[in-house]
Amino acid sequence: MPNLNEFIGPKPTEQAVSNLEKVIGNKPCSKCELDVNEYYWAPSNFVMSWTCSAGHVSTVKVNS
After folding, report:
1. Which of 9, 15, 43, 44 has its CA 20 to 30 A from that of 3?
2. Residue 62 and residue 64: Cα distance in Å, rounded?
3. Strand runs (DSSP E) across the chain, as ranges?
4. How far is CA 13 from each of CA 7, 18, 20, rounded to the nearest angstrom?
5. Would you tell me how many other CB atoms lie within 10 Å of the CB of residue 39?
6. b/e sequence 1-16, b meaning 16+ C-beta within 10 Å
7. 40 - beta bridge partners?
8. d(CA 20, CA 1)
9. Where are the domains of the chain?
10. In contact, 57 and 47? CB cutoff 8 Å
């Protein structure tokens, strides 16, 4: 059986997670029909990101 950690990648550090703001609100997945009810906002680089329950990661960079 393969090691799932090889596919998932390293976990974010405490410092990287503490810089993110958790926002409650619906966002659609860019690859399937699922919606997500929360997303993360990184104010340092103006990036919103969210992951649907199927594991698809969606990211949007806001121009400043």
Report:
1. 15
2. 6
3. 21-28, 35-42, 47-51, 57-61
4. 18, 9, 11
5. 20
6. eeeeeeeeeeeeeeee
7. 22, 49
8. 34
9. 5-61
10. no
- Whether 22 and 40 have beta carbons less than 8 Å apart is answered as yes
Is 16:39 a contact under the CB 8 Å cutoff? no
pLDDT confidence of residue 64: 62
Tokens 């810089």: give the residue. Answer: 19
Digit-coded pLDDT (tens) for 19-39: 789 999 999 999 999 999 999
Burial of 50 (0-12, 13-18, 19+ CB in 10 A): buried
Terminal Cα distance for the chain, rounded: 46
**CA–CA gap between residue 18 and residue 26 (Å, rounded):** 22
Q: What SS3 class is residue 63?
A: coil
